[in-house]
Design brief:
45% of the residues lie in helices and 12% in strands. With 155 residues, the chain is of the alpha+beta class. A four-stranded mixed β-sheet has the order 2-1-3-4, with helices on one face. The longest helix is centred in the first third of the chain and has 14 residues. It is elongated and about 50 Å long. The structure holds FE2/S2 (inorganic) cluster.
């Protein structure tokens, strides 16, 4: 488990990677999110202080892009595509099944922190609809019945 000191050092390292370039703020936030699976308040404050960028500006960026999360996420992010092609092919059924099986609502994380369930708009592979992305892996032509087996592949 990471300590507060380790986390702070990680943020510092990430800023250093971009030479503290203020125009690289999105990339910095992406790296921080990759490290922590979300954007912790302390990390954003640390970025603000170290880069001398107002915290409000950082929050503006963090809340503008849907890809950023200010809430802790589970080890595996499940993104169900709700774009037009996936919607037509029954994406809502996938979401219903996931909510039922994982006992949560869209936007929530399981108690064991294993999964976070979110809805996204078009994953860019509409011909494979309906699609879900789990921990970065695309699951094409997904059916409700395949979900329990697919989830066993994630720890
Ligand atoms: S609408 Fe789902 S991948 Fe494009």
């Amino acid at each position: 488990m990471k300590t507060a000191k380790t986390k702070k050092k990680s943020v510092k390292d990430i800023i250093k990677k971009y030479d503290g370039d203020k125009t690289a703020m999105i990339a910095i936030l992406q790296d921080v999110q990759e490290e922590f699976r979300y954007l912790p308040k302390e990390a954003l404050s640390s970025i603000s202080k170290q880069m001398e960028v107002p915290l409000t500006r950082i929050y503006e960026i963090a809340t503008f892009y849907n890809a950023f999360s200010l809430k802790p996420r589970g080890r595996n992010l499940i993104e169900v595509c709700a774009g037009t092609a996936c919607h037509v092919q029954g994406a809502a059924n996938l979401m219903d099944r996931l909510e039922r099986d994982l006992k949560l609502s869209c936007g929530e994380t399981t108690k064991d922190k294993k999964f976070t369930l979110e809805e996204v708009r078009c994953l860019g592979c509409c011909s494979l609809a309906p699609v879900a992305r789990i921990s970065g892996n695309i699951h094409p032509n997904l059916t409700q019945d395949q979900i329990p087996k697919v989830l066993t592949n994630y720890k």
